[in-house]
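Single Protein Entry

Contents — chain, fold
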Amino acid sequence: MIELPFLPVQFALALLWLLQLWRRRAGLPWPQTRAALLLLMHLELVLQLTFVPLRINLGGLPRIVNLVPLVESLLMLRQAPLPLSLYNLMGNFILLLPLGILLPQLDRRWRSGVAVFASGVLLSLGIETLQWLTGCRIFDIDDILLNSLGALAGWALWRALRWRTRRRRRAASERAQLAGDGLHAPERVGKEALIGGAEAVR
């Protein structure tokens, strides 16, 4: 068993440098740049939670694979203490939730639930595969399902917040328009009165 150190500070600085280069070349506006920065920070946190400390199994320890959904989760709920079980299940669900919130802000291609869910599946599948290859943890289909559903929940939250923001802006625009019409109403009445008076004189 080999344990490798993980250097989050150096990794974060490298990501920030790459983001700055990408922003200069692509000419990204600030909202997209902010989403990209938060996404990189989130991915770094995911790596720390799933691979730190990184232990590579070079011996004969078996690499466990679970491809049957819900088996491991139900077994854990029955055998492990309830707080520990809920912590593990909710942790897997929340792990990629920020992904579903940030991806749609980064690019229009990720504004559909299908795209976000597929991104969550691919990212979680990559994590589980690397964990299996290194032998540090088991390959569990339940983790992939919970991670992907969490990403989809993040997308639903982003959709709800976006709809609410648009509704507020529309209401504010309508109120401003009504207020403007109210201010110009006396002026229109005065003009109509003058026109009516001129026609009466004729």
The two ends are 105 Å apart (CA to CA). The chain is about 80% helix and 5% strand. Residues 141-201 form the longest helix (61 residues). Residues 2-201 form one domain.
